[in-house]
Amino acid sequence: xxxxxxxxxxxxxxxxxxxxxxxxxxxxxxxxxxxxxxxxxxxxxxxxxxxxxxxxxxxxxxxxxxxxxxxxxxxxxxxxxxxxxxxxxxxxxxxxxxxxxxxxxxxxxxxxxxxxxxxxxxxxxxxxxxxxxxxxxxxxxxxxxxxxxxxxxxxxxxxxxxxxxxxxxxxxxxxxxxx
Length: 179
Fold this sequence. Notes:
7 helices, globular
C-alpha cells in the first residue's frame, strides 16, 4: 500500500503523508481488533479517522467525510468505554464477543442496500451543491452504509463485523480506482 501510494500519488501530492498514516493506522487498528483490544478504537481515532477525514474532503468524498465525523468519531469513543464492561471471562484483557445468525445477516444485507439507495438519492437531490460528483454518490453511500453496519457490529461485539468490512473494502476499492 505504501509503495502504491508513493509510486502513484494523487492529484493532491500533499496527501501522501496522510495516506501513509491512514494505511498504517488502519492496519494497526485491525490487528488490535483481532486481539479483542479496546485500544483499537483510540488508535483508529488518531491514526486512521482523523487523517481519513482530510483525505475524503480533499478528494470530494463528502458522504464519507460526513459519516466519519457524525458516526465513526462518536462510535469509537462509545465502543472504547462499552468494551470495558464486557470483558472475556477467561482473559480479562480481551472483550467478550457474540455471533449473529443467518436471519440477522439477511436483515443486515437488505437494510444496507435500502439505506444506501436512500442516501444516494438524498445526495443526488442536493447534487447541485456538489457539481460533477454524482457518479460516486451511490458507491460512496454503499461503502458508508457498510461502514455504519460494521461500527454497530463492533459496538455490540459481533465477530462477523468482518463481513461489513469486506463490503467497505470492495466499495472503496471501486471508489479509489475510479478516482
